[in-house]
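Budget justification note: compute hours in this period were largely spent on complex prediction jobs such as the one shown. Inputs:
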Amino acid sequence: MRKFLLSTLPLVGLAACTPPGPPPKDYSAFNTSNPRSILVVPVVNNTTEVDAADTFLDTLAPPLGERGYYVFPVNLVRHTMDDSGLGDANLVAQASPIRVASLFGADTVLYATVEKWDAQYILLSSSITVQIHYTLKDGKTGAALWDQDETVVYQPQAANGGNPLADLIADAVIAAITRAHPNYIPLANQANAEAFNTPQQGLPYGPYDNRHGGF
Amino acid sequence: MRKRLFYLLPLLAVTACTTPNPPKYNWGNYSPALVALDADPTTAGDYEATLAKIVNDPQGKVPPGIYAEYGYVLQQQGNTSDAIAMYAREKNAWPESAFLMDKMIAALQAPAQPKPAS
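Corresponding output:
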């Protein structure tokens, strides 16, 4: 008995690092497609921040490459699509994934939409929010292989020194710094990491990782 | 001894999920340089230098797409022969890029010919 309990301990250890979350996704279509390459197309912007789509697009290649996939050169692709009349992200999103993939010889096409990209400045509780919707489609069948909605919120640590006046000043300073340069990139990186790397929710490892097909 | 190792297993498992994988590639300053380029086209020189550094770094593994990104910068500068060489390196390193790289190279080698309908 004792031996049995001991032998389950490693399992307990493993389970501990995956908090209870949504049920595992269905990867049957993904596994049938077994893609090697991902074409990242221009990002759709549903926010009022004009830079959000391009900035977010620029963060996508490293996490996908590190996941083990061939990622098409993002900047080259964006300009080539511009030249072919596919510069508008909304237009690309409505075009056939099969046709878009065939222009580049891609196994899959990754569509992303920035749903939220905002900073709120409220006295004592400023926050920055990034929300992204991701869809990966098969370049041969056009079928959706993977879909994920990701929201990341950052709240600067409020000062708590016990001196109300000092705290108020500290918070005002934090808010002013954030307002001058709201840096969304760390949040975009975090959204990507959570979206792609979460076991049974993200993308299985690609062909350039020795865990190919697994999590 | 064997028993003692067993006790350690849960610890190993916990450590395994908190330690990020070592990076496969040297991305250098690629993403931040691209963000800067989008915001301000006068930073094109920084973007080019960032790509050149990644491509020429003898120790870093060149990530997917970076030879081609550098080739595209060279192409925009009118440096056709070096652009073609970079596209060829991308194709050689990543067979998944062969279709696109052949297309980029063909367009540079015969710029006067009309593009084939695709």
